[in-house]
Amino acid sequence: MNALPKFFGAADPVAYGGKDAKNPMAFRWYDKDRVVRGKRLEDHLRFAVCYWHSFCWPGGDPFGGETFLRPWHHGSDAMAMARAKADIAFELFRLLDVPFFTFHDVDAAPEGLTLAESVANLNAIGDIFEKKMASAKVRLLWGTANLFTHRRYMAGAATNPDPDVFTYAAGQVRAALEVTNRLGGQNYVLWGGREGYETLLNTDLRRELDQLGRFVSLVVEHKHKIGFKGPLLIEPKPKEPTKHQYDFDVATCYGFLQRYDLLKDVKLNIEQNHAILAGHSFQHEVALAQALGVFGSLDINRGDDLLGWDTDQFAMNVPELALVFHDMIRGGGFTTGGLNFDAKIRRQSIDPDDLIHAHLGSMDACARALLAAVDMLDAEALTGPLAERYAGWTDSEGQAIMAGKRSLADLSDRALAPGFDPQPRSGRQEYLESLVNRYV
């Protein structure tokens, strides 16, 4: 394959121009060096470009084929195309000035006829990544293995009825985890794309859950063996491609991790689109993960309210993002995680620079939302009324109840005392909703 000509129209990295900037290739809100609550915006948001949607998706849908016509999608030498794709990827990382990227193994390198050949391909592209990263700003937020596209995984990987498929998947994950470790990845993701079922007529639920628990335990053991320091991340999703997936939502994943004694090493990577498919809001899933101590990272995208599937659009809804970031920062923000753009441009957005505009616009929306979230936190706009609502639990009687110093009989005797007549207080929902609108 011949060397690719210049792909993007832009030549210089996108820079901050201020909210009145006229340049379409300028950030209006994302000033990466602006310090907020003791951290630069770049360090709060930790943006990552994903390899699969940005460089692997050809623009097809169930009713139409490829629209993007990417030059690295067409050729007889799969490894040459993979190297060309890496060149374009690192050029986009440079133009967006992002600190991180993410990839699946088969996004980066072609699958071979055998696992050994696939692993060799991945390591070869890993060498290229390593060389490019040595002279680039970008680092690896996380890597993962694709255990859902190949037909061998049609009945799942870890939950497959055939232990040989389980074994093959273990080999694939080992290779991806080791490359992630070699590249200094800060996390490793396990997404159970087909870890679920289509029908209970041919499914042994208990067996499959035990298999999944054993598989994740094996990955934890190997993580420690090779000295990988970051957490493993499970990404909840309720359905699609399977009818029911075992990583349905945050609550389900927490129960799974607790049952198989994995809470110490595994956190969650939460996605807005998946939250909606589970019947929750994005804010709910983030807040619950924070409450349960399993918050890890975020895939930052959005779904279409009129469509019931995973549309993976770039996140642009500032009010929604502001509430998510409010809860995230209140809980301490990211440690090893970040905002991964698991999002794809629309199939009619065929100009290469549409990739830049999509990321730029969403980065600006995230920055604007984070600044609004910080303003709300600094003013105690939501945390103040929240503390007031639960104030009774911080006084001596409330603390005694929670400390186990009151029996059921004690509480009953108090409730039966003359004059004891607690009255409800307003939840003030509409006031709080209008309050949020003052900031966004």
Quick structural overview:
With 440 residues, the chain is an alpha/beta fold. The chain is 44% helix and 11% strand.
Keywords, separated by commas or semicolons:
TIM Barrel, 44% helix, eight-stranded parallel β-barrel, alpha/beta, two-stranded parallel sheet
Write a structural description.
It is a single chain. With 440 residues, this protein is α/β, with parallel strands linked by helices. The chain has two domains: 32-378, Alpha-Beta Barrel (TIM Barrel), CATH 3.20.20; 384-437, no CATH class. Helix content is 44%, strand content 11%. It contains 16 helices and 14 strands. It has helices at residues 41-45, 51-56, 78-96, 105-108, 115-134, 163-182, 205-226, 250-259, 272-277, 282-292, 318-330, 353-378, 383-389, 396-402, 408-416, 429-437, and strands spanning 15-16, 26-27, 35-36, 39-40, 47-50, 100-104, 139-144, 187-190, 196-197, 232-234, 244-245, 266-271, 295-299, 339-341. An eight-stranded parallel barrel has the order 5-6-7-8-10-12-13-14, surrounded by four helices. Strands 1-2 form a two-stranded parallel sheet. Helix 5 (115-134) packs parallel to helix 6 and helix 10 (282-292) packs parallel to helix 11. The radius of gyration is 24 Å and the shape is globular. The relative contact order is 0.11. Its main location: cytoplasm.
CATH level-four homologous superfamily name of the largest domain: Divalent-metal-dependent TIM barrel enzymes
Query: So what's the CATH class of the largest domain?
Result: Alpha Beta
What is the third-level CATH name, the topology of the largest domain? Answer: TIM Barrel
Please name the CATH architecture of the largest domain.
Alpha-Beta Barrel
How confident is the prediction overall: mean pLDDT?
96
Order of strands across the widest beta sheet? 5-6-7-8-10-12-13-14
Shape: globular
How far apart the termini lie comes to 49 Å
Name the poorly predicted regions: none
Helix-strand string: EEEEHEHHEHHEHEEHEEHEHHEHEHHHHH
